[in-house]
């Protein structure tokens, strides 16, 4: 087995979990696995985490607070998809060749509202049907989405002329925090 690349990748992940794109930890991970492999890896981890969280417990929260959080996440996701236009969406964190930059609506406040929507929905479900394993998978999803959005933004800056300016006027994932 090829353990050295896995060890290097793990080390890079640990060093750069909350670092901004352009800082050494993120640059190192991007250089190690640049290209379609890393983009697909992020998607596989994301979809695997979501799959586990949806199929290891109920899909709809019973407790009103958690149901409200789940519905807010669903609403945010639907609005984000509608404002992005489904033809402009790419599951991998690489902009479409003929894609357009969307900076209106929820995107004027949050650059990655679909990621936040996913976290709200499954976060509510994990709180509703808590287990240590479900929490670990939720944390894996969170870390993966942070890496995925850093990777995506490194490509968006190169692809769209106005992306750097857009970054200065919007929050990455959570308004007023990140």
Provide a quick synopsis of the model.
By secondary structure, the chain is mostly helical. 65% of the residues lie in helices and 0% in strands. Helix 1 packs antiparallel against helix 2.
Description:
Mean pLDDT is 85; it is low at 17-21. This protein is mainly alpha-helical. The radius of gyration is 17 Å and the shape is globular. The protein folds into 2 domains: 1-34; 40-168, no CATH class. It has helices at 3-16, 24-33, 36-55, 64-84, 113-128, 132-159, 163-168.
Secondary structure: helix percent: 55-70%
Radius of gyration: 17 Å
Query: Largest sheet, described in full?
Result: none
Q: Give the terminus-to-terminus CA distance.
A: 38 Å
Q: Give me the secondary-structure category.
A: mainly alpha
Could you list some keywords that capture this structure?
about 180 residues; mainly alpha; 2 domains; 7 helices; about 0% strand; globular
Q: Strands, helices and their partners?
A:
Elements: H1 3-16, H2 24-33, H3 36-55, H4 64-84, H5 113-128, H6 132-159, H7 163-168
């Amino acid at each position: 087995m090829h353990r050295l690349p896995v060890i290097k990748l793990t080390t890079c992940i640990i060093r750069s979990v909350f670092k901004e794109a352009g800082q050494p930890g993120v640059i190192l991970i991007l250089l190690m696995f640049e290209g379609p492999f890393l983009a697909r890896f992020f998607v596989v981890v994301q979809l695997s985490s979501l799959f586990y969280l949806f199929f290891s417990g109920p899909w709809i929260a019973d407790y009103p607070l958690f149901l409200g959080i789940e519905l807010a996440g669903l609403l945010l996701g639907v609005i984000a998809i509608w404002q992005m236009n489904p033809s402009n969406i790419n599951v991998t964190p690489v902009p479409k060749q003929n894609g357009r930059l969307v900076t209106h609506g929820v995107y004027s406040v949050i650059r990655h509202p679909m990621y936040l929507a996913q976290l709200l929905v499954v976060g509510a479900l994990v709180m509703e049907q808590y287990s240590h394993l479900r929490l670990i998978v939720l944390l894996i999803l969170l870390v993966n989405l942070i890496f995925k959005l850093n990777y995506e933004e490194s490509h968006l800056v190169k692809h769209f002329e106005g992306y750097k300016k857009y970054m200065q006027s919007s929050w990455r994932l959570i308004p007023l925090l990140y």
